[in-house]
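Entry, Tuesday afternoon. Goal for today is a structural model of the target with zinc ion bound, before we commit to ordering more compound. Inputs were pasted exactly as handed over by J.K., no edits. I checked the ligand SMILES twice against the vendor sheet because last time a stereocentre got dropped in transcription.
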Amino acid sequence: MLKKVVNISKIYTWETSKNSLEVKKNHEILIKNDKIIKISKKIDDFTNDTIDAKQCIVTPGFIDSHTHPIFFGNRSDEFHKRLNGFSYEKIKKTGGGILSSIKKLRRASFEELYLNSLKNIKPFIKYGTTTLEAKSGYGLTLEDEIKSLEVIKKINNELELDILPTFLGAHAVPQELKTSEYVEKICNDMIPEIAEKKLAIFCDVFCEDGYFNIDESRKILNTAKSYGLIPRVHADEFKYFGASELAVEVSAISADHLMVINEDGIRALSNSNTVATLLPGTTFFLNKDKYANGRKLIDGGCSVALATDFNPGTCTIRSMPNIIFLAMQNCGMSLAESFLAVTYNAAKSLNISHMSGLINEGYNADILIWDLEDLKEIPYWYDSADTKIFKVIKNGNEVN
Ligand SMILES: [Zn+2]
């Protein structure tokens, strides 16, 4: 099946050979099944299936490389507690925070969790996200982690967007176990079974003071690797203790958060293939003043991606245009750098940059058509991007 996108004013994509933003004016795109097969000024191949872009601009679909959308209920009470002076740590100590999400998820049936998570994930599409990484991590028992990953699998089969699953058993230590016991469980029971069932591509660890230390994180990630899962790390969010260096040591594909990374961490990341993923939505949602320093990371030679960190406790933002706005305003990133961070670099952090994140021949036909004249309008309309996206094309099909 051939399909043509015509009447495009500008196509924005990243030119990897020049490492710069490329703008193609008045080009057409030819799609065969789910792939882009030709981009040129005039495409002569005949097809009855034509999409008129009405002189709008085109970008690749966004890739959101860090989300926690598999949860039940919500934690709006915490937002109000925080405004009354409770810290995230204090909320956690009094049974709130992540522990409350764990309680709710364990009680929910598969069907309940599925319906709730479907509601969480569906709106990503209207904001232009065509590929999503989704983590488990609110179950913390073998059974509940598998339940979460099975929900991801079911939603991935049903919704048009692609969802890449991450096992995040090491999100927190469940109250009923000591950290050492839980690490044993993750390594001996959970990783082998999840790998065997092929329910995850990645394995993530919350490597942070009070959660999993360097040695525990190393053990989990090396075990995951031996079972064919690709490591990623929640690193340097609250307190610097070398989590980025660990990410590089275990060849993690991404180190995420990085609000408190130092020179050693930046040096380690810049000399590696580990992508530095920044989540400014969380800093905004928690009303903190210290955003990750994207400028310093990029100047230090790191590949930087941006993601939403959508989750029930610390960020309910799903819109990547909103994240671009926050990164430009608070992380010192330019429009071109932010564009790269939500397309090609995000694809790198998910091991799919050979087929996703660019408007290129041979790439997935994941295309956004915007009712805008210029790329710079995307962050400007940060809270209404859904109204500015004229069409979302995923794997060659119009989905919104
Ligand atoms: Zn996270």
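The chain has a mean pLDDT of 96.
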